Known about the structure:
The protein is of the alpha/beta class. The protein has one domain (9-321): 3-Layer(aba) Sandwich (Rossmann fold), CATH 3.40.50.970. It has ten helices and ten strands. The chain has helices at residues 29-41, 77-94, 111-117, 119-127, 175-181, 195-206, 221-225, 231-240, 266-271, 286-307; strands spanning 45-50, 68-72, 104-110, 132-138, 186-191, 211-217, 246-250, 253-258, 313-314, 320-321. It has an eight-stranded mixed β-sheet, sandwiched between helices. Strands 9-10 form a two-stranded antiparallel sheet. The radius of gyration is 21 Å and the shape is globular.
Amino acid sequence: xxxxxxxxxxxxxxxxxxxxxxxxxxxxxxxxxxxxxxxxxxxxxxxxxxxxxxxxxxxxxxxxxxxxxxxxxxxxxxxxxxxxxxxxxxxxxxxxxxxxxxxxxxxxxxxxxxxxxxxxxxxxxxxxxxxxxxxxxxxxxxxxxxxxxxxxxxxxxxxxxxxxxxxxxxxxxxxxxxxxxxxxxxxxxxxxxxxxxxxxxxxxxxxxxxxxxxxxxxxxxxxxxxxxxxxxxxxxxxxxxxxxxxxxxxxxxxxxxxxxxxxxxxxxxxxxxxxxxxxxxxxxxxxxxxxxxxxxxxxxxxxxxxxxxxxxxxxxxxxxxxxxxxxxxxxxxx
Length: 334
């Protein structure tokens, strides 16, 4: 799918399908992304919600979704999606369910499930070719239970379980790469603060059959330590510093949909969040800041090498040739 109906922000939906008044945290970047995703998918969507922050959306017996919603344990949402997709297919085959009443099956999880507890069930669902969209709101920690470290926590962040020293010593797991290694039809990263990019990717994913992943970086005022009104600004900094690459995997190739040519120093992004405050006060930890910046620079150096205009070379026989391209590294820098 090469054409899009979204050529500028004025063409984005102006009315949200997801109801208001939920007990979600103010400024939730995950909710910001979900609003936009649901507007594109439409009401013929069933959400299979793994335990996590978004569990708070539905307070029995009410739900803000216009369509269907199913709650599952944290590790088993893909299995729930399999049952729903199978049931819909049976209804289509045996009872003549018309196409306009068929539904998009969407797994909705946080990073705790997507990167960790639910990864085994997810891998199995991809292997079976399950026709579902997997939407991960990635707030880089177990946000619903106090922002403990998860497999998505970035290096150097302080969490409820990494309170001393530099904070989290590990690295953010490359979920994009892990999915791409399964060779599914589509994988993409998005963020709510880039709504046009998000809309185009959801539009594309909606038109594709099979297992599809959308990872939405979700700035979290509560867990990351910033004023809720700064969520959009934090999201834009994540993109403009190069910390959060906007990209997609389709037809076996990785394409970056926005390349920040003049990247803002990563320290601007980190300093705006309380979880990284220890890297700046009482004194700057130049070693860790340089380490994080080097990771980001190294990632984009590989990308820019691939997308730069090729330099013609002279091949044997006197004919001009173009060197082969190299696939860029896919994992997020931090």
